[in-house]
Amino acid sequence: MRNLFIGSALVALLAAQPDAQAADLYVYPAQGQTPEQQTQDEAACYQFARQQTGFDPMAAPTATSAQPQQQGSVVGGAARGALVGAAVGAIAGDAGEGAAMGAAAGGLMGGMRRNSTRRQQDDWQQQQQQAYQANRNEYNRAYGACLEGRGYTVR
Fold first, then answer.
1. Residue 110: what pLDDT?
2. How many CB atoms lie within 10 A of CB 8?
3. Cβ atoms within 10 A of the Cβ of 109, count?
4. CA terminus-to-terminus distance, the chain
5. HSE-up of 95 (CA within 13 Å, CB side)?
6. Which pLDDT band, with edges at 50, 70 and 90, does 115 fall under?
7. pLDDT digits (tens, 9 = 90+) for 50-105
């Protein structure tokens, strides 16, 4: 469930980026193009930039790699540790004490795994945002080049 939430949050964050035709670029008709001509040129340049870069700013963002799976929990680690500790304690003659020590150690290990997974998921999310932005920048370059070639000033 948590992975679904993080994936959904990433899509929502990236989808909040404004569309490419109005977002990062200002387009000025430097050669007196009519609004109708500008609309046609922008549509043609949108197609051109998509074909050149393989990026579509109008499409929902997609992940470039699989999201790291959540691993470990304090409760799950404690339960596994208690089982192992009880078995070791039974051999040593005190299953209760072994279970308690195993639960404590397992809980600690489960918590450490969970924190490590959280860091991995944060790193993954940052990588996804950087990849999206790099693709978006390439698209904007192609889009701007196309419009400049058609007589527009693009900033």
1. 62
2. 10
3. 17
4. 43
5. 5
6. confident
7. 999 999 999 988 887 777 776 655 566 566 665 665 555 556 566 667 667 666 66
Inter-CA distances, 120 with 51, 115, 124, Å: 33, 9, 6
Place of tokens 């490590």: 116
Structure confidence at residue 126 (pLDDT):
92
Closest CA to 64 of 141, 10, 5, 138: 10
C-alpha Rg value of the chain to the nearest Å:
27
- pTM across the whole model: 0.57
| Structure token pair of residue 145 | 């080049």
**What local confidence, expressed as pLDDT, does residue 93 receive?**
63
3-state SS record for the chain: CHHHHHHHHHHHHHHCCCCCCCCCCCEEECCCCCHHHHHHHHHHHHHHHHHHHCCCCCCCCCCCCCCCCCCCCHHHHHHHHHHHHHHHHHHHCCHHHHHHHHHHHHHHHHHHHHHHHHHHHHHHHHHHHHHHHHHHHHHHHHHHHHHHHCCEEEC
Parse the chain into domains and list their residue ranges: 2-154
